[in-house]
Amino acid sequence: MLNALTQDTPCVLLLDEIDKASEELEYTLLEVLDEFSMTIPQFGTVKAECKPIIFLTSNNYRTLSDALKRRCNYLYIENKTKAEMLEIIKKKAGVAEKLAMGVAECLASLQEVRLRQTPSIDEAIKWAQYLEDNFGSNITDNDFEYSLCALVKNKQDLETVKTMKLKSNFE
User: Fold this and answer.
1) CA–CA gap between residue 128 and residue 96 (Å, rounded)
2) Strands 37-40 vs 12-15: parallel, antiparallel or unpaired
3) Rg for the chain (alpha carbons), in Å?
4) pLDDT recorded at residue 140
5) What would the mean pLDDT of 77-93 be, rounded to a whole number?
6) N or C: which end of the chain has fewer CB within 10 A?
7) CA quadruple 26, 32, 35, 40: dihedral positive or negative?
8) What does DSSP say about strands 12-15 and 53-56: parallel, antiparallel, or unpaired?
9) Measured distance CA(139)–CA(121) in Å, rounded
10) 2-45: pLDDT as tens digits
11) What is the reported pLDDT for 18?
12) CA 67, 71, 75 angle in degrees (round to 5)?
């Protein structure tokens, strides 16, 4: 934030997943959004030379304060469709069409289930690359189950996902 405030030309500041930041950072952000300045006890107040455009993203990990929400515009972005996910995975992971389709179908299925942490497209890309590099088109049930840790990031979610029969998306 300090770097963005001290720029002498227009800039963009992206604070990704602000809901995972500490509440103390959120309070600092309130001052930045209100006055485009930041007070540092040892150095005084730094005012923006050129006001940055600030984007915040949130996945509802925790509820943001009303004060912060009042200072922002809200834009909800829908999840990608299965076709969009397929195109992204094919392009970014550089894997075979059938594998990309299986991964996209798995990701789409997981987005419909209530998980503590829904896998991202980036995690799906890395998973697709891992599957391609290690198993090609010969993914066994054990290989598939073992590799889910690249996509699912906690024990409760992993147990839920293992009951979903996602392996069938690759056959």
Assistant:
1) 9
2) unpaired
3) 21
4) 87
5) 94
6) C
7) positive
8) parallel
9) 21
10) 999 999 999 999 999 999 998 889 889 999 999 999 999 998 99
11) 93
12) 115
Strand (E) positions, the chain? 12-15, 37-40, 44-47, 53-56
Let me know: does 101 contact 136? Beta carbons within 8 Å.
no
Whole-number Å distance between alpha carbons of 48 and 158 = 46
User: Average pLDDT, whole number, for the chain?
Assistant: 91
Distance CA 31, CA 44 (A): 13
Which pLDDT tens digit goes with each residue over 87-121?
Answer: 999 999 999 999 999 999 999 999 989 888 889 99
- Asked if 130 and 151 touch (Cβ cutoff 8 Å), the reply is no
Give the pLDDT confidence score for residue 59 in this predicted structure: 82
The number of residues in the chain equals 171
Whether the CA torsion 154, 92, 20, 68 is positive or negative: it is negative
6: left (phi over 0), alpha (psi -120 to 50) or beta: alpha
Q: Which residues partner with 39 through β-bridges?
A: 45
Which tokens in the block code for residue 102? 């299986």
Cα–Cα dist 148/127, whole Å: 8
